[in-house]
Amino acid sequence: MNFDQYKIDELNHAALPEHKRRLDFVSTDIQDFDAVIKKLQAFNVAIPSWALGTGGTRFGRFSGGGEPRNLEEKITDIGLINALNKSSNSISLHIPWDIPENASAIKALAAQLGLHFDAVNSNTFQDQANQKLSYKYGSLHHVDKAVRRQAIEHNIEVIKYGVQLNSKALSVWLSDGSNFPGQLNFRKAFQNTLESLQEIYSALPDDWKVWIEYKPFEPNFYSTTIGDWGQSLLLANKLGNKAATLVDLGHHLPNTNIEQIVSLLLMEGKLAGFHFNDSKYGDDDLTVGSINPYQLFLIFNELVEGMDARDMNHATDIGWMIDASHNVKDPIEDLLQSVQAIKIAYAQALIVDKIALAAAQQNNDVTLAQEILQQAYRTDVRPLVAEASLLSGGALNPVDAFRKLKVRDALVKERGSKTVATGL
Ligand SMILES: [Mn+2]
């Protein structure tokens, strides 16, 4: 389905007086107002191809209606999201869940909707129907060279799909690990992983990167071979300039100081990108900003400070992507909420008084440093985010517009109420 721009404009028009009142209130306190709005307009977050359908747990899955039945419909859904928020102009593909059988047609459809392709993701955490050897005991770290070879070939195949679509990065998450003490020789597992990644690395085109994701536990519950940022960074450093560490917010033990990790990875030029989600207990994959928005703000504060210190482009020099599972909400509404939460945290980080904060740190003025951070965090920046969306042609309130334009009803009518998205 498609909807006409004038429908969004009509909704915006009706909400404009209220929006202007709120924007005037907040903007008087903001230095560099125009620069902040421009940065918000430039900021985009990639949508993964697996996030458009209702997710589930190992206990069950309760699918909604009108879910995308194939890659084309997933791209269409991302086009709808981007039309509403003007901040989701790319798609991250998962192979083999979403193989682009006809790359040029897929590319044309995306281009028509103003979308491009972000990182491609490989999958060696499950066995596919036609697969020769099993990943039951791991893939790139496997004790059997033939299994490692098969996993290496898969990753190289994923790069080939990505090249056809103009992707520029391969994102690797391994579930490799062990469930019980004694199962694995840690050192050998790590070395096998390194050697496998070296072969994948050598297949990367010149302008490509490989992003190495880490995770402390699950599906393995005793050890994970790339279990934390230290192990990922060790691999990235050994591999070379094209390799860097990817931070998934849910892939940390509770209370880990993620903002400190981000700061140091940026300092080393080794922060590849982000998988956004939120969590209360483990890798919960909840809506971004739904549990701990203050942590998200503190992370963005480090991101902005660290990227500015290296003169990086906020919008393009790091890979921004959502990696969440929408089990009880409409996936499109959940994604719209997630992108809004990310932009709110980003806007809050942009308005931190950085000169005053640096001075407070230099003077060991702990109280003032906290006041400065929380002054930004407690500012209602939603009118800034809305203004950026409005200026780019999006909706002032994307979730509200999605509902008022009855987008889901139209998708159910078109696709049916019993559809199940691929890859879930
Ligand atoms: Mn992830």
Describe the protein.
With 424 residues, the protein is of the alpha/beta class. Helix content is 47%, strand content 10%. It has helices at 5-27, 33-42, 71-85, 103-112, 145-164, 186-202, 229-239, 258-267, 293-309, 331-350, 354-362, 366-377, 382-391, 398-404, 407-415; strands at 47-48, 56-57, 60-61, 90-92, 116-117, 120-121, 169-172, 177-178, 209-213, 223-224, 243-248, 271-276, 319-322. The strands form 4 sheets. A 6-stranded parallel beta sheet has the order 6-7-9-11-12-13, with helices on one face. It is globular, with a radius of gyration of 22 Å. The model has no long low-confidence stretch (mean pLDDT 96). Residues 173, 213, 248, 275, 323 line the site of manganese (II) ion. Manganese (II) ion binds next to loops.
Total number of helices: 15
| Structural class label | alpha/beta
How many runs of DSSP E, i.e. beta strands? 13
β content, as a range? 5-15%
Rg over alpha carbons: 22 Å
Catalogue the ligands.
manganese (II) ion
How are strands sequenced across the largest beta sheet?
A: 6-7-9-11-12-13
What overall form do the CA principal axes indicate?
globular
- How would you sum up the major sheet? 6 strands, parallel
List low-pLDDT spans: none
Helix content: 40-55%
Please tell me the overall pLDDT: 96
**Order of SSEs:** HHEEEHEHEEHEEHEEHEHEHEHHHHHH
Distance between the termini: 23 Å
